[in-house]
Amino acid sequence: MTDSTSDLTPELLARYDIRVVPMYVRFGEEIYGDGVEIDNRQLFRKVEEKGVLPQTAAPTPDDFLNVFKELVEAGHDVICITLSSHLSATCQSATIAAGELPPGRVEVIDGLNLSSATGMLVLYAAELAQQGLPLAEIAARVREKIPKLRTYFVVDTMEYLYKGGRCSGLQSLVAGILKIHPMLALSEGKIIVKDKIRGGGKKIVDRLVDCIAADREQVDQQFVF
Q1: Average pLDDT of adjacent 10-residue blocks, the chain of 225 residues
Q2: CATH number assigned to the domain with residue range 152-218, chosen from the 4 options 3.40.50.2000, 3.10.105.10, 3.50.50.60, 3.30.1180.10
Q3: Is 164 left (phi over 0), alpha (psi -120 to 50) or beta?
């Protein structure tokens, strides 16, 4: 199991029989289940229409408990990997829900990451489950992987950082004029600014490749996103 921020495709979810508990996206009084009632394309269209970013909310403990109960009552043990607890209350909700069930049936893991990095952990756990490993061993192996993950991404435009209150209008304007793109990374579950890249296209790709190359001896090619 995971939450909707893991960004796994419907094909991967179906192949590994992975259950997803959606986050909530709110535009004023309108509330949508992420990936269920609104997809990324619709979300960005609404941002353009309304000129503001939506608020997001973690799934509730009951959201997780309903799925946990269904799976446990069907005879399954459950491993649930969430996005970083430093970025959302999702892990806390899942942990509260797991506490309502018999010990040893549900393992909740704080992935200390987001997006495809969380997805990689989920796929790794799914592969181990298909090999028939017990729940405790799967959880231990996943937790061993977490410190080895490296996540980097480059923001193409400062527009959404500005709308979300993460930077000033002046910073957004200057970055646009000078074509500065922040490179962000995950460090101990928190988003940090790793670099600021001036220029686009090839410079951005080259810098990302440099970051990956720095850890090339430790790269695990089982899953590449």
Answers
A1: 94 95 91 88 86 87 97 96 95 97 96 93 96 96 91 70 48 50 85 80 79 70 60
A2: 3.30.1180.10
A3: alpha
